[in-house]
Amino acid sequence: MRIVVALGGNALLRRGEQPDADVQLVHVEAAAAALAPLAREHDLVVCHGNGPQVGLLALESDADRSLTRAYPLDALVAQTQGMIGYWLTQALVNAGVDRPVVALVTQVVVDEDDPAFRAPTKFIGPVYEQAQAHQLAGAHGWTVAPDGPHWRRVVPSPLPVRLVEQATVEQLVRGGATVVCGGGGGAPVTVGPTGRLQGREAVVDKDLTAALLAVALRADHLLVLTDVAAVMEGFGTPSARPLPTLTLEQAEGGTYPAGSMGPKVAACAQFVRATGRPATIGALSDAAALLTGLAGTTVQPPGTRS
Amino acid sequence: MRIVVALGGNALLRRGEQPDADVQLVHVEAAAAALAPLAREHDLVVCHGNGPQVGLLALESDADRSLTRAYPLDALVAQTQGMIGYWLTQALVNAGVDRPVVALVTQVVVDEDDPAFRAPTKFIGPVYEQAQAHQLAGAHGWTVAPDGPHWRRVVPSPLPVRLVEQATVEQLVRGGATVVCGGGGGAPVTVGPTGRLQGREAVVDKDLTAALLAVALRADHLLVLTDVAAVMEGFGTPSARPLPTLTLEQAEGGTYPAGSMGPKVAACAQFVRATGRPATIGALSDAAALLTGLAGTTVQPPGTRS
To answer: Is domain B2-219 given the CATH code 3.40.50.1390 in the classification?
Structure first.
């Protein structure tokens, strides 16, 4: 089977953890251990998130007084693709994946007129108390917004249109490689009238990029991996319970929190609508069981018998 | 023809320039304009340097008080591979290269017992006055050394043994892609007794990595691009003059400054010795003319008629 996996940036750095390299390497090794059985048996493509990591690099670049201005987000996203791609490919080899494992720097085309450029919603970087968040927003020209009980920086998150390097990903997968790509959703670019690529100050949702790529690659299954076991019915209420399946209509019609479960359900629905194949949301540690429906929440193609 | 190019990190950020992203993007576009004719006509592999860039990221990571310790050099090298790979592939597409252009995150195997780990020689980051360099060395645990009239941080620079992703580079080149890889010489790793890859605190010379890759790929020509037009006879004297050619024996026997022309001549000699094919050192802006011997200094294979 050909499988596309979306791996949360929070899976590599948990909220409240010290953002040190060695802290993340422990999580990367756990992720690789969970993904290695899939990579050995199937053609696997991994799109990873980068919220905590790109936020850290943005802060460092902001604080660097040798610079006239901080590096733009597209360049910082590309930096995280290099670092996380390096860590993941190394850890997958060390976890016993016995085929080429490679990370590709990837650009994602977005629409210059995407309304997201006027309404930033994507969280990056650490959490702050409200007063500190507003002070930082003033100092750096950021937009900030509440994320649960805390506040964080938000940046535009336009919809992905296509990966510039899509044909190469296809070539590598067909050649038997495990491919890490679309990291952080891809470095966002717009395409000018003459075809010129231009980097943009944005961060694309990696779940939506993974879905787009899964459709383009005609994947057999999309796995959206996160730190919760399943989509919950009655989320946040005492009667909350995990949903083993969602119909496509439920997935397209439901309302889920933006910035967390919302894009994951939307990504699955897009893939199932376009391909008629299943997509599953669940915990990274359950990766193998998600494929067989033994864990997680599967958005089922129309006509599936339950 | 199949051509491997080594592109100096200083070609993307000149000494004394503000290390801003937009300053580097101007140089990246000039580099892409010089390389695009080669990429259109030939199978091109580009290994770029990252001295100024990895030095900047190391300083930022050192200064980041949310970290227990700065990120290790292997992770920072991988970050520069992401950023510079993104910039270069985008600029090559924008310069009219009409084939897939991709950047691969690459690990380079080094020997754990390489003496370089005990004697750092590779310059990274900005230049300092002597007193400031010694103060920084004390504060951060760096080694510093004189670089011309100034001082800079130096890190271990072990010899490259092989690129972990070599087979994939070959596959991509054979498929018609222009490939950016081995950035910053590759993220350095050692291989443990069970085959486990382990990142190391080092920076590998990108000219030597390019030569190694050129041999492995059976390239027809190695081009080592820098900011000077040729190897100079009597360098630093009033009678200095450019050398159009060097015999392999001259290249192997000559003494050139470590950290600048030395590794370039050594890289060319290694490629010529291993393959019997020519290698040329010269200016980035002369890239096309270097191939035909109309510019630069060519290390000639044994038996070449002059």
So the answer is: no
